[in-house]
Fold each of these.
Amino acid sequence: ERNKYENNDVAGVVTGLAWTQVGGDILFIESILSKGKGVLSVTGNLGKVMKESATLALEYIKSNAAELKLDPSIFEKYNVHIHVPEGATPKDGPSAGITMLTSLVSLFTQRKVKKSIAMTGEITLRGKVLPVGGIKEKILAAKRAHIKEIIMCSENERDIKEINEDYLKGLTFHYVNDMSEVLAVALTNEKVKNAKEL
Amino acid sequence: ERNKYENNDVAGVVTGLAWTQVGGDILFIESILSKGKGVLSVTGNLGKVMKESATLALEYIKSNAAELKLDPSIFEKYNVHIHVPEGATPKDGPSAGITMLTSLVSLFTQRKVKKSIAMTGEITLRGKVLPVGGIKEKILAAKRAHIKEIIMCSENERDIKEINEDYLKGLTFHYVNDMSEVLAVALTNEKVKNAKEL
Amino acid sequence: ERNKYENNDVAGVVTGLAWTQVGGDILFIESILSKGKGVLSVTGNLGKVMKESATLALEYIKSNAAELKLDPSIFEKYNVHIHVPEGATPKDGPSAGITMLTSLVSLFTQRKVKKSIAMTGEITLRGKVLPVGGIKEKILAAKRAHIKEIIMCSENERDIKEINEDYLKGLTFHYVNDMSEVLAVALTNEKVKNAKEL
Amino acid sequence: ERNKYENNDVAGVVTGLAWTQVGGDILFIESILSKGKGVLSVTGNLGKVMKESATLALEYIKSNAAELKLDPSIFEKYNVHIHVPEGATPKDGPSAGITMLTSLVSLFTQRKVKKSIAMTGEITLRGKVLPVGGIKEKILAAKRAHIKEIIMCSENERDIKEINEDYLKGLTFHYVNDMSEVLAVALTNEKVKNAKEL
Amino acid sequence: ERNKYENNDVAGVVTGLAWTQVGGDILFIESILSKGKGVLSVTGNLGKVMKESATLALEYIKSNAAELKLDPSIFEKYNVHIHVPEGATPKDGPSAGITMLTSLVSLFTQRKVKKSIAMTGEITLRGKVLPVGGIKEKILAAKRAHIKEIIMCSENERDIKEINEDYLKGLTFHYVNDMSEVLAVALTNEKVKNAKEL
Amino acid sequence: ERNKYENNDVAGVVTGLAWTQVGGDILFIESILSKGKGVLSVTGNLGKVMKESATLALEYIKSNAAELKLDPSIFEKYNVHIHVPEGATPKDGPSAGITMLTSLVSLFTQRKVKKSIAMTGEITLRGKVLPVGGIKEKILAAKRAHIKEIIMCSENERDIKEINEDYLKGLTFHYVNDMSEVLAVALTNEKVKNAKEL
Ligand SMILES: [Ca+2]
Ligand SMILES: [Ca+2]
Ligand SMILES: [Ca+2]
Ligand SMILES: [Ca+2]
Ligand SMILES: [Ca+2]
Ligand SMILES: [Ca+2]
Ligand SMILES: [Ca+2]
Ligand SMILES: [Ca+2]
Ligand SMILES: [Ca+2]
Ligand SMILES: [Ca+2]
Ligand SMILES: [Ca+2]
Ligand SMILES: [Ca+2]
């Protein structure tokens, strides 16, 4: 499943870790821009809280356009659509926040996302990263999907310490407190192939 | 039932495979354009996820207008209406995604849809095709309706392999990973009769 | 009850056949135009699917304006209101589709509707007519209301064949596959008295 | 209670007959105009069907502006607000239709409503008056409120005939089939005091 | 609690009497203007009927601008916000109508509200005052809050007569039929301190 | 948890005290401005009453722009987004009112919020502060989070007096009646680092 995205030379596709009723799973956040007036739309059978994460992510980016070296006028010239595939599965909760934000920053900057990396964490309007639940199940899902690096909130480190070491082999953890750290780890400085001029 | 559509010299009518409470069934996706401002409307007693598929399909087309050789200005000059007949039956789920996208590309390009072909598969914003459920029941329904070719996700091939060969006689399967493959198989290069100038 | 409408020299009033919890019934579709911007509104305690039929009917007409000899600019200059009387009774289902479409075509062309005719059938965006349920009960209701001709989908002919011949005496059936056939039967070529100039 | 309205030298206040869970009752329809853009708003704890009656009434008036000697431009220059007092009581059903229409015609023409008259009846888009239920209870309520004349659909005459004559003493009934008859009976040709210039 | 408002040199704050599940209570209606386009917004955990009262109050004022000596253009230049404090308590029903209208007239005229006065009564679009329920409980609550004068509908006088005289000591009642009487009693002719120029 | 915000050199982040199903807790109100047209949006899995608090807070500020030395034109040039982190927890009730208002005033004035201070209290449209519930649980939560000063309504002082003195050690209480007092205590006169020019 993950291979579909592995070779992703496109911007805006990021792997997240989700906690569903049947255990942990990986999910993908996709986002695209189309000419428009700054409308944000979201699909993928998402609940209210997960939709709010998308709004938060976009607001954070708008508010930090300067730091992210983005021309603020692009927010008024494009519509943003975020999709989370596998529409048959209802999805909710705040833990896709950092994944959504990474997706959007990749999209707006056209920077390539690192390979074999996944992430889970709530985001705040100020760019803080908050801890989330279901860490053990998410780690197992990440391993099954051959993920190599994982980004999460530093307050989730204690959850990792409670997991049997054998399960953690081959995984590198990045503990973060701020979105800027997420972006520094997750995004390369390379532009995607055929990067769009925004 | 299918004969109604068989002779379809009009653009935008595509046969899908659905999985309903009473087993597999074929369904038809119809779409038309009318002069307007780019509004998408959807009818046919559809649930939230199936409506999202329509949005996804249109977003994908807008985002890939160049590859599809479409003038982006048409999206602002026409309204698009997608309908799934048999309003008495509630319909939902992501599996009509590739059918909807094929319908819209036929509509915008005025290319003829291949005869006796049906399809089922979820679509992502990036044009990936995802596997769906109910494959066995859908195949039986396709046979009853004299379908000859079926398009589905390559990950659904394993579902086909579990079906008794007798049921598969006379059917050709096209396993795909991307929407571009769906379109290459499903759409002819011939324009429909009385093709509209958009 | 029906006599109220029998002498209808006005455009847009058409008799349909409905299947309610207390058996078959006739219903009337009324529609009027008022100066406006192309807004469609619908009243009569209608459910979601019946409202969708109204949208479908109007979309079909817009898309086939040329064939119907309608100036497309009228759709932007008038609002359309469709009403189904007897507001105390909730109404739903797709079977009023052809009745609604006939009503709107009569309205836009100001052509007189044939006398003593009733109809039942689902409509698709492409103008196909689909079969509907409750045929026996609808026929009985039509007889009680002194209807003489009935239009329905050719696939509903098998339902008529299962009805005792005695019940069918005095009724003429028109079996159709396309909306164009419905209109050819149901609408006269005569304009209504005091026909509006649109 | 009724006395509050008896001396009504204002346009737009009309007495209706309602059938509630605690028996028949009289109700008042009030309407006012304010400078605006043609928006219709409705208050009074009304259900969906009763709100639709308000829409129907206004549409009928717009569509028959010429016959009612109304300048069509007024519909775009004023907002209309219809209120049904006694907000603690939920109200629904189609039977206030003719009362609402009479109220609005009084309002737009500034013609005085006849004294001591009440009415009940469903209205259609074409101005037909349909029969309604609860006639016996409504008559008793009208008598208690010293109503002298009552307007209803001619098909409700049979309900009146089933009522003991003693209850009907002092009441005059107007049986009608069309809205034009309602207006002829209910509205005087006198303008209200301080009639507005529209 | 009431003392917070007692010294109110601001316009738009009026004391109402409410009937809640735990007995009678006083409530405060606050309203403010801000530069805008005539939007009315309402907060305070209000139900549908209480929100309708706010709409009615504003419509009445617009329709009677001349009598109230208000320049009609102010309704388009300001937004109005009405709030009923104590958001933890859901509030509904029509009885705050006269309190809301008094609040808004105070606001638009910048006239001071009389001290130690409270009121309860439904309002109609034409400015009539209707009786409400829970009078005994409301009187007890008014006494506890050291209210001295109470305005209510003249039809509620019979409810007062059923209350033991001892409970009524120190209270003056104003029985009214029209909003104009409410305003005459409740509003002083003095402008509030720092009255706004509208 | 609180440390994330302790060092907050940014405007608009304020600590509140909440009463949840699992006892008292601290919560953070974040707010940011982005170029826009004065739209207020709110996220954080908030209920109706808590959303109303945000509206109230913004209305109060608009109405008191002069006193707060704010140029009224900024309200039309920026969108305001308020977020309450920890999206997995539903939040409701009026008690975050003063926290939201403090957050917005800090945002619009770019004044620094005092360190180690938390608050709880309902706000009214006129800037009064009302008492709230759950005081004991909130105090315990504040202590656990190393809060040093707490702002609440003077009517909540009686709740503090019922708490064992040992629990109150190290806490300073500010009892207030008006929002102006909240702001005087909670906001410093120092601008935040890199204060925005609005
Ligand atoms: Ca999967
Ligand atoms: Ca999965
Ligand atoms: Ca995630
Ligand atoms: Ca079927
Ligand atoms: Ca399908
Ligand atoms: Ca009937
Ligand atoms: Ca029908
Ligand atoms: Ca009554
Ligand atoms: Ca209280
Ligand atoms: Ca009250
Ligand atoms: Ca917490
Ligand atoms: Ca709080």
Amino acid sequence: MPNVPDPVRENARLVNEAIDGRLPLGGLRVHEAAEHLLTAGGKRLRPALLMLVADAFGRSPRDTVPPALAVEITHSFTLIHDDVMDDDPLRRGEESVHKRWDVPTAILTGDYLYSKAFETALKTDATDATMRRVMETLAETCTLICEGQALDVEYAEADTVSEDDYLRMVELKTGVLFAASTGIGALVSESGIFDEAYGYGLRIGKAFQIHDDVLDLVGESGDLGKTRASDLFEGKNTLVTLHARRNGVDPSLPHDASDAEVEAKVEEIREAGSIGYARERAETLVDGAKDDLDALPEGEPRDALAEVADYLVRRDY
Amino acid sequence: MPNVPDPVRENARLVNEAIDGRLPLGGLRVHEAAEHLLTAGGKRLRPALLMLVADAFGRSPRDTVPPALAVEITHSFTLIHDDVMDDDPLRRGEESVHKRWDVPTAILTGDYLYSKAFETALKTDATDATMRRVMETLAETCTLICEGQALDVEYAEADTVSEDDYLRMVELKTGVLFAASTGIGALVSESGIFDEAYGYGLRIGKAFQIHDDVLDLVGESGDLGKTRASDLFEGKNTLVTLHARRNGVDPSLPHDASDAEVEAKVEEIREAGSIGYARERAETLVDGAKDDLDALPEGEPRDALAEVADYLVRRDY
């Protein structure tokens, strides 16, 4: 099992340092709730990737902390609001914001982090022209994420969802923020490229989500920081459950299913080849992402980006 | 009773045209809900003010539609989320989004409009340097609005709230978006001034909210598009209720109060001088706002801005 590549870990450390350096945010409940989520851990993948892409073009990771922090804060805001919408009780192994406080606090904390993300990105040491493109990328990305979440909610109620529908939803809900991260990394380093960096992020982001869906079934609840097989309990469409259904397996679980019943259902899905199928789709995306990296200068950061792509579809949690 | 000044009405028409020209937004529920609120009316004061300030510096209103629309969209997002937090059933005489659809849809629709506001502002025909300042103003403003709403929620639970606390909350919750509107108007017209335009907006914004609190008590429910005396039912602190309390009047109402009881309570508050007191405070703010306008070139737009300031504290709804 691969570990998080070292340069990612090092960048994540810089991000955590930057977060700690900005605390406390203020004396209100909304500040406390924002700190709760920002300091609850998380792998800091998106900011670390932004910094790695910029690093590939010779920009020191320390200089790209502001835009990196901006994408992490954006990610945090979406987590808080998604947890309210899905009424998810756990996040990163801690109580989700709306459970620990309440729904109004969670809405407001997400809203607060939303603008903080833009404010933070604007602290980047970059030309005004570059900053405009960064802002455009961040704003358009947030719109797409909302549309992805909207598709997720609507698909949950739909009679039929195709694999293409699902992949489009994943692209919007998860892919575009990875893509914005790596794309912004290319922008703030004045690399002159954008599309390939964006494409790399989009592909690994989709692969990441597909692998997350796999982990929901095969991972350990303690590692995940959330309920195991929550997708089956909630009847969510994923690449796994769609494949299972196409192959005659009902992938849903009743709310009172026992651990043994969960285990048996996961086994049934595995035997239908659905988990292997999803893993394969994720691997193909990762191969494409590694091809995108050809547009970046050779060196340690680029190697690390290739390693991250592999890591994302092989991690345990 | 003064009417909305003509130049405001004309700018509001341009804003409505621009909104209509952008519909439909898409086929998802989140798009439908966003359209529901954006087309439900509203006076379009903030965008009209932005356009008037820019107009005072010679920038044609047609050219400043994008940033104007951006502040209106920002306003819309806050309304949708505030209605969820306050569980308000009505908005602009229509069902609020979370009532017509549900809470997840309302959260998501607000989030969608939030980034749309930034995207729309970025369509402004302005230099990159100006755009950076516009973005900074918009992002910082959204953060302050969230902190204002947070104060509003926390004050509702507090044992004592001072008049200064209340005024600070109003400044954040309402003042800063008016201020951002007029400030951005000064930025996009390359006027070279910012503080006075921002100050004018901040003062009339506060006056606007204080007058809204007055209208909650003295206005007609049909005109307001919401429940009359909702502040008394919810036990909200306002300049009126704080004054009443200081003068020995309990300004709260039980949830089952009859129309006659509402009427009697409002009369009691009026006799304590609380409504007159709030009106006077609003007038003083308006006088200060009109002084700020000295920094703008003389002419029809500046006269209209002075008229708006008066209108805001004399309107019926």
Amino acid sequence: MASASWLDIDEDSPFSIDNIPFGVISHNSRLADRQVAVAVGEYAILLQELVNGGALSQCPDIQPHLDCLRQPSLNDFASLGRPLHQTFRLYLRDLLRADTPYPGQLRDNRQLRNRAFFFRSDCANHVPMIIGDYTDFYAGVNHARNVGTLFRGAQNALQPNYMHLPVGYHGRASSIRPSGCPIRRPAGQILPAPEAAAPVHSASRKLDMELEMAAFLCKGNGPDGRPISIAEASSHIFGYVLMNDWSARDIQAWEYVPLGPFNSKNFATTISPWIVLADALEPHRCQSTTQRPVESALLPYLDEKSAPTFHDIPLSVRLEYPIHSEAGSNDKATTTITDTNASHLMYSFPQMLVHHTVGGCEMRVGDLLGSGTISGDTAGSLGSLLEMTDNGKTPLKLDDSVGSQRTFLEDGDEVVMTGKAGSKGAYIGFGDCRGIIVPAY
Amino acid sequence: MASASWLDIDEDSPFSIDNIPFGVISHNSRLADRQVAVAVGEYAILLQELVNGGALSQCPDIQPHLDCLRQPSLNDFASLGRPLHQTFRLYLRDLLRADTPYPGQLRDNRQLRNRAFFFRSDCANHVPMIIGDYTDFYAGVNHARNVGTLFRGAQNALQPNYMHLPVGYHGRASSIRPSGCPIRRPAGQILPAPEAAAPVHSASRKLDMELEMAAFLCKGNGPDGRPISIAEASSHIFGYVLMNDWSARDIQAWEYVPLGPFNSKNFATTISPWIVLADALEPHRCQSTTQRPVESALLPYLDEKSAPTFHDIPLSVRLEYPIHSEAGSNDKATTTITDTNASHLMYSFPQMLVHHTVGGCEMRVGDLLGSGTISGDTAGSLGSLLEMTDNGKTPLKLDDSVGSQRTFLEDGDEVVMTGKAGSKGAYIGFGDCRGIIVPAY
């Protein structure tokens, strides 16, 4: 199954040559302008250099589209469509295989390798697409049930619509941040106590994370906004990233009735740096872990007839945080706070997209759809601190020598989300989706 | 007060030379590409032709920025900032005055006038800015109270947060349509009856309009998303349009708890074609018609200290609809269904913008903020059919010979919103915000 490469790639790397995700990078000294690249092992490979160096000459299908590989975003490349993404990705894999059929194009062209290869750790990653609109769904049924139970009790945890449609809301495209961008704690209106008569203006005291997957689109339905059918929905999905939908729970609780979350979400949303193409995840398709109750059969326009359109991707969240020893030194500790799986969703991305467009909503290349928080059904598999701590009532104990615990995030805390499908030597992964909390203005 | 022009301008025109709103047009035979223009009387004046013909030579401030006037959108021009917008608008007014100080630049240059002037009725208008994100507020307090009363009773009409912050939600930038674009009736999930056990997939049976004002931004706060203070908020507002926030009430009722409106709104939102610059409306600033209760004083970050930041703009909605006579002929009838005023808001646009950014949300040039539905407090001044018909229970009688009535919009109905401030010969108006309903797919 795993493909061996002439490159030295750690067998635990999320970026095996079976993956080859796409992103946009810059580099302090070698690359001032943003450019599209792919990630392999510890490298980012600049596609414009492969074009310039002739390494793509044996891939006839990409020849008419080389300009798409010299852009500061992936929108033009995405627009080429999934069959071409797959052809090109497999060609790049062939270039990198130990038994490459095209040794002269890259493996044996040291000058080109020197120009095209960057250490990922030396590069800055940028939001890889121009995002027209960003939508966040609520398809993580365990999360929805846990949150509903917290606020309305177990009997009324899920709203009546939940089993019939993927609930979603429009997010803020300007809020999307690349991994590594510091996250400033938001301020806003919060109720100082549940029974308070009036709100105060304060930095959020309940800053939370939300573990999500998100999909970028490679095909629109405009300008007339034709509904997308369930049969064609997959062809609109370019690829996937991990997403941290930072949420200020106290701002949210005060503002969200009746029109939904607003300032509690729009300050920042972090995505992992590399878009894993939909085709790379095809071998890891699976069923949802959630059984749909017989009495809530889906309407035909949403019915996938048990097609395996979910993904078996183990996901983790770790907290990297400062600890203050008695000697006064500042160290960092790390605790893994979540181990879960991308398959814990009630609705697949094709279903989300179909429902999004059932009324004629126009979608564009580069649009981003978030899954909603992904939680498993056990204590260690929850995707938000809200759930882990029972809305701050039960602190989470962290793994360190000084007895640290958390209800919500503190300044200096860094949340790192990771995920990779597959097995050693052939991982299809995302790289870190990372953000550190800095104090409010 | 009114400025006379050498152009023949109807004294009822919304586009007096005291207005000079900005838009983007194309023309079947004379102008294939979209270009920025201004509206005066029955004309659209193409700015690139004024540049090419030397008509702007006496306006030194615009000289370094002439490229901004040769664009398919107004984003670059907007970015120049309000002082320059004002200088340039007043220069254009001077060019058009009967006693113009620059007669040779335009008035006496017939060749240039022939190239630069188009009849507005021959032109297509386009969405005039590239909209990064679109937000819709709920600042029309009469509307919020009416809708709250319908669904929760008079005692609980307004949520506890309403008097403390401008409630808003993220809309869909891709849904914004220019006036005149047909509006396809959306389909989606609706409950066939209030007590139904499951939804059906159906064309909306409760398609409604919402009368709103909306503001385009000319200044961002990014990329770090600094909160915008109430003192500086006005400098971020480029200008205003009318907006029809089409709403499918049956889809909305089923979907909107807990995360807000989604498919009930994202199929289409129509805006009037010309952006009336903020400075053109300065003479028509006023106080809100709504008294804030003493017990709900605003937090300091929102407090405008009674500055008159609302606008005294009479607004109307008329319905143009087919009537079927006994002889079988199809005629159209017209009924004015709303007369109200833009001052019926609880929060001003500067307050909306300040609240939007209090948590660090990034705003960009071209972002669009809607006010929420504007209703007066009398029967003939309501901004939605939901309110006029008590959610469809009491049909609205229309003014025609065949006794037509409406609960919600029917296919073939055309909604036309208009608004103009000022008085005869000096109106500052918007032109029609128009959309006709076409059948669902």
